[in-house]
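Quick one: structure for this chain?
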Amino acid sequence: MNSPELQRNVFLFLLAIVTVAFLWILFPFFGAVMWAVALAILFTPLYKRLQKRMPGRRNLAALATLTICLVIVIIPLAMIAVSLVQEASLVTQRIRTGEINFGVYFQQILGALPRWLTNLLDRFGLGNVEGMLSRFGQGAAQTGQLIATQAVSIGQNTFDFLVSFALMMYLLYFLLRDGAELSKTVRHALPMARPHTHFLLNKFTTVIRATIKGNVAVAATQGALGGLAFWVLGVQGALLWAVLMAFLSLLPAVGAALIWLPVAVYFLATGAIWQGVSLTVFGVVVIGLVDNIMRPLLVGKDTQMPDYIVLMSTVGGMALFGVNGFVIGPVVAALFMATWDLFASSNDQDEAP
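Got it. Here's what it folds into:
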């Protein structure tokens, strides 16, 4: 009854139970833990440089890195969020006063369309202006109700957000300071061959670093360029649309076009030819070129994944995990490909004479 095999099985069962229990405890703060790990991986090179300049002062180097992270990443995001809320409130007020009327815009587009296209839309039930306006009004009402509900939810969850933010910063400090030792512990603890463990952990860190740097750089560039184009063309709420373009640009190839393309179509349909042509050319050549050049260089090159895998994993990850999915999706895809590569290579070695 007390054989070594039984003892090992009981110990493995206990190990699985306590591991699942620990992950269950951390699950309410999944986002905070994930972003702490991601930021630690992203800022570890900076921490190592500061540590070389501060020999024997690991705490001070970690604190300095944490401060730089606050200044570079978190404070600018907070300022953008505040400006976005103000801009969204202003646009909402203009919609209520009728200064911005999407129904009128839609009616203008339909009036500028050729007769054959209008007839085609009538066949599909899309040419009925009153019906479309009614649907748009219902959709706007539902959207407004959803936004109001989310605003109340955000207000109620402010304490939870502050707790998660404090936990993220606290964990980030210790991950920066003790990350190397923790990585060695994980490598020794995993029941895998050392080369496989080393390869998978390096793949994990490389994909996270490349995904965050690449996607954030592409999103910021496309959002800034799109917002600048809207501001030059006199589109109201340029900052709001810029942030939306930056967020949607996390979807490769099609993201930012979901914002600027309808505006270009409206310009062309209402007779503002040079504005529509300029925005179309700028969107296709400049904004599209940013996605086609920067994303493969910053994301696909380091992750060593095809563009279609990056696209599918990003969209699937965001569908399952929200904003966090643009990191989780490519990481899971990269580990999937790396694990199967290791499995195939081990089979080739077994079959070799």
